[in-house]
C-alpha cells in the first residue's frame, strides 16, 4: 500500500479502545459527524480524548476539503449490473447534494489499486467498492490505513457491506427448478474469488440437497460472469452424455450465454432445457424468450452502501432476493 494511505497508529488505537472498526472511528471523528449522539459515537470520542488523539489532516489523503464526492470502484461499466448500480449510487448522492466518481478495474488487483489511488488523490470522502476479492488483501489494507470504505454486492465478512442474500438467491433458483420437476440441474458458476459467486453456489448446493436432486460434480462448470463464460460453461454441460434438463447461471449475462449455447446445439429453451439467471437486469424480461431470474434490489443496495459510508452507520446490510419466473423455465417434459 502506498504511503499516501497511511494515517498512523493512533487512529487504530482509538478504534481498538472503542471496540469499533478503524473506518467507523475515522467517520465519527470527522467534524461533519460532531452532532452524532449515539453510544458508539460517545465511546469513540471518549477513547480519542483518553488517548490524546488529534486528527492529522495534513497527513491524510482523505482530509476533508469540501469535495462532497465519493469514489465508486466497479469491475466494468459494460456489465449491466454494474452500470445500473453506479446509476443508483449517483442518484442517492444527488439526493444528498453529493457527487460520485466512478473508476473501472477489470476485476484486476493491480488496476484496482491504481484506480483507488486515483480516486483518493481527488480527495473523495470515501470509497464504495464492488470489487472485493477473497484472493487479494486490498480491503484489509484499506482497513489498516483507516480509509473510509464500504463494500457492495460482494463482501469480505469484515468491512461494512451492502449486499443481497446470495446464499438464499442460489437456493431459490434451485428450488424453483426442482418444483418444475427437474432432477438434473447444471450449474453455470462464477469466479471463486467473488463472495457473491461462492454464496450462490452454497445456496444452490443446499437447494439440491433438500430437493433430492443429483449432486454430480460434472454438473458444475464455469468460472466467470460474462456472456462468453456462460456460453462456454453451458456448452460443456449440454455436451455431457447425460446432459442436465435445466441450468442455473450465476448472472443474467451468463444465462444469456447459456441460451446461446443451447440454441447452437439445436435445443429449445425451455422445451429442451430450462434456464434461470441471476440479478434480473431489465433485458431479462425483453428477450425473445423472457429469462427467469433471481431479482436483486440494486437500488436498496446502493442506498444502503451510501448510508453506511456517509452516516457512520455500523455493521452491514443484507437485502433479500426474489425469484422471478418467466418463459425460460418450464415444467420438465414427461419421458
From TrEMBL:
Top-level taxonomic group: Bacteria
Keywords: DNA-binding, Transcription, Transcription regulation
SMART domains documented for this protein: HTH_LACI (SM00354)
Residue ranges annotated for the HTH lacI-type domain, each copy included: 9-64
InterPro entries: HTH_LacI (IPR000843), LacI/GalR-like_sensor (IPR046335), Lambda_DNA-bd_dom_sf (IPR010982), Peripla_BP_I (IPR028082)
Protein name as it appears in the record: LacI family transcriptional regulator
Organism: Agreia bicolorata
Amino acid at each position: 500500500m502506498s504511503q499516501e494511505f497511511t494515517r498512523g497508529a493512533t487512529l487504530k488505537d482509538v478504534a481498538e479502545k472503542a471496540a469499533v472498526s478503524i473506518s467507523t472511528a475515522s467517520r465519527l471523528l470527522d467534524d461533519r459527524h460532531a452532532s452524532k449522539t449515539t453510544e458508539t459515537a460517545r465511546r469513540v470520542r471518549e477513547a480519542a480524548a483518553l488517548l490524546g488523539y488529534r486528527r492529522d489532516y495534513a497527513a491524510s489523503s482523505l482530509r476533508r476539503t469540501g469535495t462532497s464526492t465519493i469514489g465508486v470502484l466497479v469491475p466494468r461499466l459494460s456489465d449491466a449490473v454494474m452500470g445500473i448500480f453506479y446509476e443508483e449510487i449517483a442518484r442517492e448522492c444527488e439526493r444528498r447534494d453529493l457527487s460520485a466518481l466512478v473508476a473501472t478495474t477489470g476485476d484486476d488487483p493491480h488496476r484496482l489499486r491504481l484506480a483507488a489511488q486515483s480516486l483518493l488523490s481527488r480527495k473523495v470522502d470515501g470509497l464504495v467498492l464492488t470489487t472485493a476479492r477473497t484472493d487479494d488483501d486490498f480491503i484489509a489494507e484499506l482497513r489498516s490505513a483507516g480509509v473510509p470504505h464500504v463494500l457492495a454486492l460482494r463482501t469480505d465478512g469484515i468491512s461494512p457491506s451492502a449486499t443481497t442474500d446470495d446464499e438464499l438467491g442460489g437456493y431459490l433458483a434451485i428450488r424453483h427448478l426442482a418444483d418444475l420437476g427437474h432432477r438434473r440441474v447444471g450449474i453455470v458458476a462464477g469466479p471463486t474469488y467473488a463472495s457473491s459467486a461462492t454464496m450462490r453456489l452454497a445456496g444452490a448446493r443446499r437447494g439440491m440437497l433438500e430437493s433430492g436432486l443429483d449432486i454430480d460434480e460434472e454438473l458444475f462448470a464455469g468460472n466467470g460472469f460474462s456472456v462468453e463464460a456462460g456460453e462456454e460453461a453451458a456448452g460443456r454441460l449440454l455436451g455431457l452424455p447425460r446432459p442436465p434438463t435445466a441450468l442455473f447461471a450465476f448472472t443474467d449475462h451468463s444465462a444469456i450465454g447459456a441460451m446461446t449455447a443451447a440454441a447452437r446445439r439445436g435445443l429449445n429453451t425451455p422445451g429442451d432445457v430450462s434456464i434461470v439467471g441471476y440479478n434480473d437486469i431489465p433485458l431479462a424480461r425483453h428477450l425473445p424468450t423472457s429469462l427467469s431470474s433471481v431479482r436483486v434490489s440494486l437500488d436498496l443496495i446502493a442506498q444502503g452502501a451510501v448510508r453506511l459510508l456517509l452516516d457512520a452507520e455500523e455493521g452491514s446490510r443484507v437485502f433479500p432476493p426474489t425469484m422471478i419466473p418467466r418463459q425460460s423455465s418450464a415444467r420438465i417434459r414427461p419421458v
